[in-house]
Amino acid sequence: MKLQAILVIAITLLTGCATSNTKTNIPSNFSFNEQKNTGVMLASVSYSGSFSGYAVYYRKVGESGNGQKLQIGAGTAVLPPGMMDWDIEKPGLRGNVFAVELPAGEYEIFNYSLSSGFAHGSGEEPLSLRFTVEPHRATYIGNFLFRRTAGFGATVLGVNISHADFSERDLPIIHSKYASLDTSDVLAPFGGIHGSMESRSIESDSIDPEQ
After folding, report:
1. What is the pLDDT of residues 132-185, one digit of tens each?
2. Hey, which residues does 113 pair with through a beta bridge?
């Protein structure tokens, strides 16, 4: 099962941009507290092409605002990408896995963003890719892959975003980082995702992207 969205990034100056919270991953020795009504969301975000800041945004269904995000990279590289700490790394592909403790409930992926040098863009069409976090269970929601489709030098101006089940790759990586988390009992791997990512196109006249 693979869902795709085409996103050609709108360009704006990085001033007055709204911010979202970034929740930290669980500690390596994590274990569920039976007194807390929480579960763990598992996911991965990766990119193919040029290094930039790539993020996926999520929030509880029914809430508004900027939500929280899973982010890899940065708009400006402090270190060469090859010197950074990647969970997923092979020729042409880099990324990280995520394991985030959340209050039990229904959540949705509702947006994506790209930050590349002076350029910033995000999806403009409504999106609600839903998943459920159950108490004391881990839920795998898939991999989000950003592929560069247009740019101006090192600046990324367009990306293709795909969402797919990479549990066979991601869960062993997650288990190696969080050995106390039972990845053999993951809630409905990918099958618990509801909704689709329809194709969309966002263009900007600020810079002519490469063809």
Report:
1. 999 999 999 999 998 888 777 767 777 888 888 999 999 999 999 999 998 888
2. 55, 122
Q: Please tell me the total count of domains within the chain.
A: 1
Q: What are phi and psi of 135, to 5 degrees?
A: -60, 130
Given the DSSP bridges, would you call strands 129-133 and 88-90 parallel, antiparallel or unpaired? Answer: unpaired
Residue where the block lists tokens 């194709």: 199
Domain assignment of residue 143, yes or no: yes
Burial class (CB in 10 A: 0-12, 13-18, 19+), 184: exposed
Query: Does residue 23 sit within a domain?
Result: no
DSSP assignment, residue 194?
A: B
Query: Which two tokens mark 69?
Result: 């995000």
Full-prediction pTM beyond 0.90? no
- Looking only at the bridges linking them, the beta strands covering 93-103 and 38-48 are antiparallel
**76 in the Ramachandran plot: left (φ > 0), alpha (ψ -120 to 50) or beta?**
beta
Residue 131 domain flag: yes
Structural domain of 171: 2-12+38-187
